[in-house]
Each structure stands twice: as structure tokens, then as C-alpha cells.
Amino acid sequence: MVTDPTRALEWMIGLPDIAFLGAEDGTGGEARIHVETKALVAGCPRCGVLARVKDRSAVELVDLPLFERTTRLVWHKRRWTCPDSDCPMGSWTEEHELIAGSRQILTSRAARWVTIQVGRHARSVNEVAQELGCDWHTVNDTVVAYGEALLEADTERIGEVSALGLDEVLMVRTGPFHRQHFSTQIVDVRAGQLLDVVPGRGSAEPMAWLAEQTAAFRERIEFGTLDLSGPYRRVFEIMVPGATLVADPFHVCKLANTKLDECRRRVQNETLGHRGRKSDPLYRCRRLLTKAKERLDGKGREKLAGLLRAGDPHGDVATLWEAKEAVRELYAHGDADLALEWVTQLGGDLQDTDYPVEARSLGRTLIRWKNEIAAWHRAHVSNGPTEAVNNLIKRVKRAAFGFTSFRNYRIRSLLYAGKPNWDLLATVSPR
Asked: Taking the model in full, what pTM does it have?
């Protein structure tokens, strides 16, 4: 049991090798704890001569709350000087990494705590800053600094990747015209781990990232998963030509549903001259059109057929609905050769000139991506984990109320979805 009040306060503060000097109430109501290190002697870093104390300076650091009060740790730092007149060292200020890192405003323990709260638990910077009673930038700069140090120290975070996924997310809209800025997520789809985030949604940045990896890393990639994106396909074809490309089944079916909806809206305007209203047949069946055929009961099929007869005089929407179901049927079996034959035949049939323009467009896309679509039946990997990582990033965006700095966006995303080794946080210090 600790009975000495001074020792008790030193124990509660929890910082090593410090001596308690006193405490007071600050002007803002915070607790101000005055401390100094217990080091009484120091040697010159250059010549090793016993140094002497030149003066002291009080440095105020943001610390963790004490008894639910915001706390400031006032560190009375010694300034040492070398007594040897020939030594070029002159004077220097003592440093103690366990108390606070160089040029940091938070104590080391508070800095690591806010990094965990914001990075690992996706709390907002503003919420944590209010809890500590400090500025937003103080917390954010600390999270970025310690986050970068943690990711750099965790050399084993990116392991052996056999299936790599690429997908884009809208990062921010800026300017009076709300210009969109995207980012590309690079994901290990087998582990469901975010490897890195690069700006844009083109091919240049992912190719540059892959070029920075070792040749052994690129050679281990067996599968590349992607949506129906030409730039991403180019990334894999150039940087990992030996990988099998797999078009994500969700995006293939989504494309078919998109073409179906485009056809429905076109026919709606051509027949009635306006956008869909709640009494229009095609507007009333828009949900039924996207529902899987096997999920329609007898009443649903009867209702859909009746609405199509009323609002689809030339059968264009019905044709696209059958095409959508044919695309879905592609994933009802696991035979890769049959799948390739199926998608080739379907893509060719849909390009018949008697079919609607949306069906011909769908057919051309299916032919262009037929090998990647059929490859799913061999690989059985998809971009689903990449989409899951995107949802995690969107959660970080909601907590941050949006991002304008790509650096902040990247670090926060990697800390939350990149699965770093958080045990290393206790050993790292920002530069």
C-alpha cells in the first residue's frame, strides 16, 4: 500500500522516472501536474564530459484525464551545457521518449491512447479532443504521426498474398462544382485485409504500388479480382500477367440489372412522355423486375406479367428481364467450361439487331469480359472482401465527417481496416 502522498500521485500518473513537484488548478479548470525527471547528472553526447544544468524550461503536455478532469503535465525540462569550452556541442535539452516524443504536444501514453481510440475504434477526432480538452489538430496530428510510425514498423503486416482485389471509393467532393476525388483500395481478398490505399481510380497508382513490391510478392498472386473496370484489368495484365483475372459476380449481375432499369426508364418516356409516376405500370413493377425469378410467388409473377403487358408494348423490358435472369443463371452451377460457353452464346445472342439497345450493350460487355466472368467458376474468389473493406472505410469517413486530406484518409483507413499489429504501438515513436 502506498502511504506517501507524493508517491501515490507519482503512481497514479504512471510515468516512469519522474519526481512530483506539485499540482494546481489551471485557468481553464484543468489539473496541472508539475513534474521533473529524476536524472541528476548527464554526460555530454559529444565528448562525454559531465554536464551541468544551464537552466530549466516548463513544457506543458496534454495528458490523459485524471479523476475525470482534463489534465496537463507540466514537465520542467533541464537544459544541459557542456563545460568543456572546446566541445562543439554547446547546450541541449533533455528528452525522455517514455514521457513525450520529440516535438509532441501529448504525453507518450496519451498519444498512444488517442491513436487506438481514433485508429482502431474509429472514434471521431473531435470527440477524443473534447475528452482531453485539447485542439482537433493536436489529436489528428498525433494519430497520423503515430499511425505512420506503426505501419512502417509493422513489416509483417503484408504477408503472402495469393488473391488481390481492387476497387474504388469516393473519397471527397470539393469545390463549387463538387468535383469527385476517388481512391483505390488494394485488398488481400483471402484474408479480407486492406493492404494500402492509393489516390484516384485509374491504373497508374495501383501499378506504381505493385512496382514497389518485391518480384516474389507479385509472382505469388494467382488471382486478381475486380469489377468490370478496364483500368484495373490493365493493372493486372501489365504488373501480374500470370494472374487469372476474375470478374466479380455481384458486379456482373448488377450490370444486368442496370441495363434492365435503363430500358425500363427509356420505354417509360417513349410511351408516356414523362418519368415514372406511382400509377404508371412500369414504375409499379420496378421492384419486381429486380427480384430473382425464383423468389417471385404466383401472385408476384401474375402481377409482373400484367404490368408488363400494360406498360411494355414492344416487349423490350421483358426481353431485358429475361436477359438478366440468364446472366444470373450463369452462377447456378460450377462448371467453368459450361460457363464460358454459356456467356459466349448469351453475349452473341443479345447483340441481335432485333433486341433493344440496352440488350446489345449488355451482350457486348459480356463478350468483352467472358474469360474473366467464367474464371470465377475455377477460382471461386470474388471482390466481396474488397467491398467489405470499403464499408469499413465508409464508417471511418462517417466518424471523420468526411476527408479532404488524402494522407489523413489513408492512415485512418489502414489503421482501421489494415489489421496492423497493435502491440508494436508501445514500441514506436514518431519521427
From this structure: 0.88
